[in-house]
Design brief:
A 6-stranded mixed β-sheet has the order 4-3-2-1-5-6, sandwiched between helices. The chain has a 6-stranded mixed β-sheet with strand order 12-11-10-8-13-14, with helices on both faces. The protein is globular, with a radius of gyration of 25 Å. The chain contains 19 helices and 29 strands. β2 and β3 form a beta hairpin. By secondary structure, the chain is of the alpha+beta class.
Length: 587
């Protein structure tokens, strides 16, 4: 099948006059998750990870993935005639330069890329006299015969009881920033920013409750929301005030800007696709190229959103505890990774407000747990036995909050080194959980604290320590994160992040301990911040080497488990309540 698709794509590349084509996993909105109609990377390579890039040339093809997906990439490519390479712009440029000669061109779809994302690649190719050429029509779309239709669900209001701030108040708050910057308008290319600003949600993207929308916010607080006509219901019209104009033709954007006499517009090039920027420049507008101010405002949750997140995590913790309680008996009676996913989903379905998973559950037994972002399927699902280690990373969407939690559990006898590995991961987790840090501290400045215990014995993990999380929005939200890569983004009160150090032994097991936390003002020191846990679920004590824990670390673990017991016990079934007594017993 892949060979046929490659052949068809190469024929189209010849027709369009390019020698290779760049294929990201992206849509025109630069969403992390994309609709089925935009899964072009998966269609041509079979790779289903959430991050990757491919280049298909007339003679060769390559898939580029980062360290999280190396094993998955190898498995999903199999014997296909596609090389597997590290996801790095320099590596992509080198590969293209090896395949193409002077005067030849690498085609790309300008709606699927950003200018910053292409800048280095373009520079490297230009040095070899290779052109990076925008194409009017995506070649894959031409040859993809059974391509799914684009989604078009109904956008719905997100009530004040969950948002804690009216859309008009948010718009005015951001409009005040436009006045300070002396710009006439702000271009909002991303559906998440629109969802937050207008207090709307939808179902157009898997795991992400948004409607596919763009918007322009003007300096006077008025706005135009570009949304498919089929998505506009009566409830939405009533929800939005008269200062918001609903337009179903997104092509009208540029005429609207002229009609409103916009001379200078604020654009975030990191989330705006190349095609839109080309059109804006064609209007001879002045562009303020800075980060979308909605992104930072959205990241700082208000008191209503934080209260909602706490409530959602209590319900979600109860579902997870009932799952963990039943897991050992289920394994004894015959169970596999996919069965575990279904059992956990059924537990969450019973909880009030459940709106689906916040991402595809990672259910990895034994060696599959070592694949950082493993996706279980009918073909890959391993039988689970009462031995070894099981890793489950899952999350849910509720109207009052988004959850993300990883627990690693021993199902019976396990390899001896796993206890030390697990405990060192736990030490890193506790180091972040108990950290107090001054205002202005960025995530990259504390990342090493989570890794120290692993580094002491020459170990590490190939992913970030923490990512931002939305409020009934994306489970991966910026701009805040904790990782090795510098962001320059200071952690601020109200931000929600994950705390998820890990360790992965290829072919044997994976370990990750993940809680969501939120940033708050320190109660003890002026000018300092600290974290508070949102996630409530036991950490498997069978995998802990108590001798490796300090007294401070042990005290944190016991206090955390006491809180889990106190909060979760009253809202779970009797069997789980009894199980919790042992699972949270003080060490």
């Amino acid at each position: 099948m892949t060979q046929d698709r490659l052949q068809a794509l190469r024929g189209e590349l010849k027709r369009q006059g390019v020698e290779a084509f760049l294929i990201p996993r992206a849509d025109e909105y630069q969403n992390e998750y994309v609709p089925a109609a935009d899964e072009r990377l998966s269609w041509i390579t079979g790779f289903t990870g959430s991050a990757g890039m491919a280049v298909v040339g007339l003679q060769a093809a390559a898939l580029f993935v980062d360290g999280r997906y190396t094993l998955q990439g190898e498995q999903q490519l199999g014997e296909q005639p596609i090389e597997l390479e590290n996801l790095d712009i320099q590596a992509i440029a080198s590969w293209v330069c090896d395949q193409l000669g002077e005067g030849q061109s690498l085609g790309y779809d300008p709606r699927l890329h950003t200018e910053p994302g292409l800048a280095l690649l373009q520079k490297r190719l230009a040095e070899r006299d290779i052109t990076l050429r925008p194409l009017e029509q995506n070649p894959i779309d031409v040859v993809w015969q059974d391509r799914p239709a684009p989604p078009c669900g109904t956008a719905r209001p997100h009530p004040f009881v969950f948002s804690g701030e009216h859309s008009s108040e948010k718009r005015q708050r951001i409009a005040d920033l436009l006045a300070e910057k002396r710009v006439d308008a702000l271009w909002l290319p991303n559906p998440e920013s629109c969802a937050w600003l207008f207090n709307i949600r939808g179902d157009d993207i898997p795991h992400l409750p948004v409607a596919l929308a763009n918007a322009v916010l003007y300096r006077d607080g008025s706005a135009t929301l570009y949304l498919a006509a089929e998505a506009i219901g009566e409830g939405l019209v009533e929800h939005l005030d008269r200062e918001v104009t609903l337009v179903s033709d997104k092509g009208q954007l540029f005429e609207d800007l002229r009609r409103r006499h916009v001379n200078k517009i604020w654009v975030d090039t990191s989330i705006s696709n190349c095609w839109t920027l080309q059109q804006l420049r064609a209007l001879d507008l002045q562009l303020l190229l800075e980060r979308d101010p909605v992104i930072e405002a959205k990241a700082r949750k208000n008191s209503v959103e934080l209260a909602g997140s706490k409530a959602a995590h209590e319900r979600d913790g109860a579902a997870l505890c009932e799952f963990l309680c039943e897991l050992p008996n289920a394994v004894q009676s015959g169970f596999d990774e996919l069965s575990a996913v279904k059992l956990l989903y059924s537990k969450r379905e019973e909880r009030e407000g459940f709106r689906g998973n916040s991402f595809e559950t990672i259910s990895g037994y034994g060696p599959n747990g070592a694949i950082v972002h493993y996706r279980v399927s009918e073909e890959s699902s391993l039988p689970m036995k009462p031995e070894s280690i099981y890793l489950c990373d899952s999350g849910a969407q509720y109207p009052d909050g988004t959850t993300d939690v990883t627990r690693t559990v021993a199902l019976g006898e396990f390899p001896a080194p796993a206890r030390e590995h697990f405990t060192r991961v736990l030490k890193g987790h506790i180091a972040i959980a108990t950290l107090r840090f001054p205002r202005g501290t960025c995530g990259e400045q504390i990342d090493a604290i989570a890794r120290r215990s692993l580094w002491e014995v020459g170990l590490d993990y190939a992913h970030g320590t923490g990512h931002g999380v939305g409020s009934f929005l994306s489970v991966h939200e910026g701009p805040q994160r904790i990782g090795k890569i510098a962001t320059g983004v200071a952690l601020q009160a109200g931000m929600i992040l994950s705390n998820e150090p890990g360790f992965y032994l290829t072919g044997q097991y994976g370990i990750r301990i993940e809680n969501l936390v939120f940033v708050k003002e320190s109660a003890d020191y002026v000018g300092f911040l600290e974290f508070e846990e949102l996630t409530l679920a036991p950490i498997d004590q069978k995998l802990i080497d108590v001798e490796l824990l300090t007294e401070k670390e042990l005290n944190w673990l016991n206090r955390y488990h006491q809180r889990v017991r106190n909060v979760i016990t009253p809202i779970v079934n009797e069997k789980t309540a009894q199980w919790l007594q042992g699972a949270t017993e003080a060490l």
